[in-house]
Amino acid sequence: MPTKRKSPPVDPYAAFINVPYDQQFEPLFLALIAGLVGFGLIPQAVLQIPGSQRRLDRLFALMYSCRYSFHDLSRVELEAKRPPTPRFNMPFELGLAVAWAERVDRKHRWYVFEGKNYRVAKSLSDIDGTQIYVHGGTPTGVLRQLTNALARTKNQPTVQELKAVYRDLQRAAINIKKAHATKSLYDTRPFQDLVYAAILSAKKRISSLSNP
User: Residue 86: its pLDDT value, please?
Assistant: First the structure.
């Protein structure tokens, strides 16, 4: 008989992010980090956990310890690199979050983000009726849709406040890449540094965080 997976302790401020790790998505990646931190949440991603444990085990442990999860499905089309292949990681991880919320932790809150209107209705009809947050492929769109998705949370920053954090994070990202001699932000230490930089900025830029 299979062993039942035990529910991990849940951090009410942790937000799991499920996004494509590619250079083209980087501005939206920064916007998502800036926006979540602006709402007083702490972004979490499987890439932040080093070690030899297989990715799926790390994914389970991390996602299920988070109160929120954010899933971007704007990169499910065929990749140009041969052989042409659709990217299944994002919808797969979304499915894990939906199952967890439905069967184990009813308090888990999951959100679906997309770049284009109506595409999810065609590519993933099983979640018809779910609110899809369409960001149009822009950082401002991501920030605007976060204010819609998180409209019931305690902290309510404006889009303009979040954009100020995003601009700070853009500048920080340049220095982080230099400091770690890398062209990619999708690794353990750069991600940790991005979250820390966003927290410092948000405390300065967002009134609800600087004056609790």
Answer: 65
Residues 150, 110 contacting (CB under 8 angstroms): no
Per-residue pLDDT at 212: 53
Bridge partners, residue 42, by sequence: 14
Peptide bond into 83 cis (omega under 30): yes
8 Å CB contact between 197 and 168: yes
pLDDT means per 10 residues in the chain (212 residues)? Answer: 62 96 94 98 89 78 95 78 73 93 94 91 83 96 98 94 98 98 95 97 90 58
Length, in residues, of the chain: 212
Helical packing angle, 188-205 and 26-38, nearest 10°: 50
Cβ(73)–Cβ(91) below 8 Å: yes
- Cα separation of 142 and 111, whole Å? 12
Q: Is the dihedral of CA 100, 102, 108, 111 positive or negative?
A: positive
* Unique residue bearing structure tokens 């919320």: 101
* Sequence-distant (≥ 6) Cβ neighbours of residue 199 within 8 angstroms: 37
Show the tokens assigned to 104: 């184990």
CATH topology classification for 11-210: Rossmann fold (3.40.50)
Other Cβ atoms closer than 10 A to 191: 21
Specify the pLDDT at position 131.
Answer: 93
| pTM for the model | 0.91
